[in-house]
């Protein structure tokens, strides 16, 4: 018969083995339409539904696609991320977070975020404003996933400055790796000058259609870019992925696991890499 002490030790060792200290991941690509927002929503939904994690997503994109795709209407909100950034009131973050039942929480955006360059321009340490905001709520979550705009401007820099990791969704297309070096250079610069803890978590190929030769060729090029950082999981085109945001849901909330399998495998890989 096992002693109570042994059982407790076994329980706690297993608990700490499974426990991941808060990870903040910014999803980046300077191009639009690569599946970045879909990837944030899908991974967040799966972390909550399948892995029972507490997740916050932050919409740093003025287009507010993550916000709207999560079923939140910006014009109906009294306060969004824009108000916090503009008024320099990091403590207001609790009032801005929208809690979605049985899903991830969201810090929403709005079109006014497009003015961020103007109201952050004269701010001291404007590159770390988001980091200060996150400090107020970081103990509540296992993961914070940040959807950055399709640019390498001040908002994206804020996301990277606040993060532990960065993930790059890259579409399998003829121009898949165009501008890729500039993204990697920006990450290296921020790691060197602002956030020494920032690490490249990986690169994921998205919108893959195995029937098209150009997609197959692009996938091979992506795999050659930084081989050790390219995820084995590939996100194939999927009509349910396109439909889900129209209903304000992530893929795991909207459809069966069969249609979410690519993102389930990606999420497993993400968790595996974070535990190394």
Give a brief rundown of this model.
The protein is α/β, with parallel strands linked by helices and 276 residues long. The protein is built from 13 helices and 8 strands.
Low-confidence parts: 1-18
Question: What Rg do the Cα atoms give?
Answer: 19 Å
Count of all domains: 1
- Tally of alpha and pi helices: 13
Q: Which homologous superfamily in CATH is the superfamily?
A: P-loop containing nucleotide triphosphate hydrolases
CATH topology: Rossmann fold
What oligomeric state is this? Answer: single chain
What would CATH call the class? Alpha Beta
Cα distance, first to last residue?
34 Å
* CA-based shape: globular
Class by alpha and beta content: alpha/beta
The CATH architecture is: 3-Layer(aba) Sandwich
If you average the pLDDT, what whole number results?
A: 90
Secondary-structure element order, N to C: HEHEHHHEEHHEHEHEHEHHH
Strand content: 15-25%
Name the features.
Rossmann fold, 43% helix, 16% strand, 13 helices, alpha/beta, eight-stranded mixed β-sheet, 276 residues
Structure notes:
This protein is of the alpha/beta class and 276 residues long. The chain has one domain: P-loop containing nucleotide triphosphate hydrolases (Rossmann fold). The chain is 43% helix and 16% strand. The protein is built from 13 helices and eight strands. The chain has helices at residues 4-18, 36-49, 65-69, 81-87, 93-96, 116-120, 129-135, 154-162, 180-193, 213-225, 239-243, 251-254, 257-274, and strands at 23-27, 55-59, 98-99, 105-107, 143-147, 165-171, 199-208, 230-236. An eight-stranded mixed β-sheet has the order 3-4-2-5-1-6-7-8, with helices on both faces. β3 and β4 (105-107) form a beta hairpin. α2 crosses α13 (257-274) and α7 (129-135) packs across α8 (154-162). The longest helix has 18 residues, at 257-274. The protein is globular and about 50 Å long. The two termini are 34 Å apart. The relative contact order is 0.18. Mean pLDDT is 90; it is low at 1-18.
């Amino acid at each position: 018969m096992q002693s109570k002490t042994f059982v407790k030790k076994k329980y706690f060792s297993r608990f700490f083995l499974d426990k991941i200290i808060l990870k903040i991941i910014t999803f980046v690509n300077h191009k639009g339409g690569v599946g970045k927002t879909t990837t944030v929503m899908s991974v967040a939904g799966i972390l909550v539904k399948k892995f029972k994690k507490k997740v916050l997503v932050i919409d740093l994109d003025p287009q507010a696609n993550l916000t709207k795709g999560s079923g939140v209407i910006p014009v109906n909100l009294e306060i969004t991320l824009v108000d916090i950034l503009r008024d320099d009131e990091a403590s207001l973050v609790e009032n801005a977070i929208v809690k979605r039942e049985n899903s991830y929480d969201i810090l929403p955006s709005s079109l006014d975020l497009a003015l961020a360059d103007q109201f952050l321009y004269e701010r001291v340490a404007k590159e770390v404003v988001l980091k200060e905001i996150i400090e107020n709520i970081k103990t509540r979550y296992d993961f914070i996933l940040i959807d950055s705009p399709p640019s390498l401007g001040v908002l994206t820099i804020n996301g990277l400055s606040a993060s532990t990791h960065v993930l790059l969704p890259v579409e399998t297309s003829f121009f898949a790796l165009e501008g890729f070096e500039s993204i990697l250079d920006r990450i290296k610069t921020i790691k060197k000058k602002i956030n020494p803890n920032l690490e490249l978590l990986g690169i994921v190929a998205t919108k893959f259609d195995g029937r098209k030769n150009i997609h197959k060729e692009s996938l091979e090029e992506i795999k050659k870019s930084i081989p050790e950082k390219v995820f084995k999981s590939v996100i194939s085109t999927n009509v349910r992925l396109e439909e889900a945001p129209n209903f304000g849901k992530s893929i795991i909330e909207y459809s069966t696991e069969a249609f979410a399998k690519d993102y389930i495998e990606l999420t497993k890989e993400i968790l595996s890499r974070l535990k190394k």
